[in-house]
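Record type: ASSEMBLY
Status: queued
Input:
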Amino acid sequence: MADRSATAGIEKAGDDRMIVADDVVKSFGHFQALKGVSMALNKAETVVIVGPSGSGKSTFIRTINRLERHDAGRIFVDGIELTDDIRNIAQIRSEIGMVFQSFNLFPHLTVLQNIGLAPRNVRRWPKKKAEEKVMQLLERVGIPEQAHKYPAELSGGQQQRVAIARALAMEPKIMLFDEPTSALDPEMIKEVLDVIEELAESGMTMIVVSHEIGFARHVADRVMLFDDGLLIEEAPPNRFFDDPQHERTKRFLSQIL
Amino acid sequence: MSGAGPKGPRLGLGLSEDVDLLRFEQQAREAEAAPGPAPATPGEWIRQNLFSGPVNALLTLASGTFVLFVAYQILSFVFVSAQWEVVQVGMRGYMIGGFPVDEAWRVWASAYLVIVLAGLSYGVSARRLRPSAGQAAVGAVIVAVAGAIVFFTAQTALVRALTAGVAPAVFAGALVGRLLGRKILKPLVVAWVLVFPAIMIVVRGFDGVPPSEWEGFFFNIIAATVGIVASFPLGLLLALGRRSELPAVRVASVGFIELFRGVPLVAWLIFSKFVVDLVLPPQMVIPDIVKAFVAMTFFSAAYVGEIVRGGLQGVPAGQYEAARALGLSTTRMMALIVLPQALRSTIPAMISHFISLFKDTSLFVAIEVTDLLAAARRSASSLQYFGRDMETLLFAGLIFWAVAFSMSRWSQRLEVRLGVGRR
Ligand SMILES: Nc1ncnc2c1ncn2[C@@H]1O[C@H](COP(=O)(O)OP(=O)(O)OP(=O)(O)O)[C@@H](O)[C@H]1O
Ligand SMILES: [Mg+2]
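Status: finished
Output:
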């Protein structure tokens, strides 16, 4: 269970907690989407978040790279506290890669340009170095032959793999996935999950919002249930799925299993 | 059903980079051709589309008769009763008005600069797009009409030679462009950026001709170019300003847009004398025409701003989020991700606005500029050619139309090239 001591000693050197969230609150107008979420994520750990629609899963992972600004509580990424300071935000974003449900590829750019954009313009790599990196990443996600196509010319599964490669191009320490397969046709889900699994095995630190139970069992180190803006339960996958402690977890699992 | 459906694309030089565009073009063509099976013969087409029922047949006959009647009237005027001498005599006035004849070489030099650049650009892009049979036919008609006009109106052998030289210049440019290909793309872009300042130097520099003497069609072109080139970036800033997080910037942008859009251009042209003087120190003397250029630029920028705002609204929030998540700064996000998408969807509206602006340059007559239209009207009020308004207006109209139509065609090419509508 997460507790209020999650942030204790975070500034100490040698700490291997990559993400620490302490009592994070986020409201949209009068509606509280996050009502105080605390959790910590260790280096090379993979956490899968599940929970009913509207429970705040997306909102939570979006606060971690400042696509949403949290109203209260504290967030640390790799020891840096996320504040309004834009230098902090830029630094933290450069350490986090994010993959969206709807891919959000840049439709006016080729696959090569989509992936090479950030290395070229944020890291300021020379063209040649960036292109080598792109090809290496495309190799890794299994579609090296698609480099010169536009996103609209690819299948959903291929697009999502390009999106993963694009996020990896910045060489992030942490990857966030927001329902990466829920916009995909069933036959394409596996090819994307395989890439994510390979990443997990390579030691990437990851948070994956996903309802793919088989994947969660297989890949997650811990599974978390969000409900109504709160982190209700967290446990290793076997215990989470086979022996849930909370009533709400049992109810949620009975609905999706 | 023989040979129905779209034909396969012709591969320019069979280059690999052609494939992308052609595939895209073909999709567009297929989409166009999609509704309904194509009829087998022209006769069948006529039956299906024009005589599908008694009402339809009646309408076809009535409108057909009307169209034939109008066409007959116009053609008989153009080829029988019109007296084109007035155009022949007024030609130089239409083109450059009171621009000093001794300095006319400056206009020619400018024109050739643009023509050669246009030829080069066409050559570079024609590697991918070959004219179809239809385009070639239209091109032939244009050359024939233009040739006839030049032949009948040119006053001196030199003018005739220079005008006739346009075609070889374009052709030579296109040929060179085709040979050099995309290598010269960057220098070409730079050249297009520099061509207007260069023209200003050619026209004004070395004891040249001041703006107050720019007249005729030359004036229309210069005014439209100034308006387009200057109002585009300003309009971009206005559109971005409207979405700024700073309330002051937002209010200022909205205020600017509403103010300049809300008053007729003619009124702004007349006001400009006083308005520009208000914001400038009194010792700065600026020609009235230049002030009017500023007014026109502001007026046009208001429209450009609104067009771009529409384009910005079409860019999904996910694009901003993806750019931010990658760590792009706001400036880079706008320049590399948002604006390219926003602008490409605004091409039709933008070109439409610029065509309007081009035609509206004839409103400068309100501040006593003799543009093409004014010159045409004036030549029909001279004692010798009194009452020949039909001829002069037809001619001026033809010129305006030719330029507007070229802009429209160019925008369509641009849309295909940039894949407007591709998502
Ligand atoms: N920008 C916003 N403005 C207003 N309300 C929002 C906004 N974003 C999210 N919300 C609300 O916050 C709540 C949590 O949303 P969130 O997207 O985090 O849920 P989720 O758990 O990801 O759900 P799903 O499984 O449907 O993606 C929802 O009730 C949603 O309506
Ligand atoms: Mg969500």
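Annotation: Chain B has a mean pLDDT of 78.
Annotation: Residues A 28, 31, 33, 51, 53-59 surround adenosine-5'-triphosphate (ligand 1) (CB under 6 Å).
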